[in-house]
Amino acid sequence: MCALKRFALCLSMLVSVFVVGGCRTLQNEMVSAETAYQQAMYDDALVWLAHLDDQVEHMTARERVRFLYLRGMTAYRVTNTHDALYYLSLVREEVALDPGRSLPDTWQRTMEHTLSQLESGPSGAGSSSGELVGEPLGESLGESPGESS
Fold first, then answer.
1. Which residue from 29, 16, 20 is spatially nearest to 55, judged by alpha carbons?
2. SS3 98
3. For residue range 14-48, what is the model confidence (pLDDT) as tens digits?
4. Domain-located, residue 131
């Protein structure tokens, strides 16, 4: 019986290590994607974000909103207007359903401005460079959605 208890204890500790390690990996990958986005390395950001697509169901509500925002804005920056509209519309819906999932003020303004451009049709789909007035590229990495700088 004692051996069975030890086995159960070891198994639960092993599972805990994988769960905690998985959370850390998700957070690290999200930071890497955000860093690439903020450094205007949009192709690199897309690689990180595409990898995170499979992990959306493991994200908290705030992480999911942050992910969707970065996915949409990165798509916009590389002039993939279809994906940009899709992901940013999902952000808008998530925030509308639960204001606790809000974005930092600068991200919220940028999202609203970008969505208005995307929804206005082909002429408003952004410049070829994907530049947007009003979004500082040096937004705080440590800022979590719901906080503003």
1. 29
2. coil
3. 444 344 344 568 889 999 999 999 999 999 999 99
4. no
Taking the alpha carbons at both ends of the chain, their separation in whole angstroms is: 56
Do the beta carbons of residue 59 and residue 67 sit within 8 Å?
yes
Question: Is residue 149 one of the residues assigned to a domain?
Answer: no
Structural domain tally of the chain? 1
**Total residue count of the chain as it appears in this document:** 149
Which pLDDT tens digit goes with each residue over 62-95? Answer: 899 999 999 999 999 999 999 999 999 999 999 9
Token digits for 92? 């808008």
Block residue for tokens 């450094």: 39
The residue segments making up the domain with residue 61 are: 2-124
Q: For residue 113, which amino acid is it?
A: H
How much of the chain is helix, strand and coil, in % rounded to 5?
A: 75, 0, 25
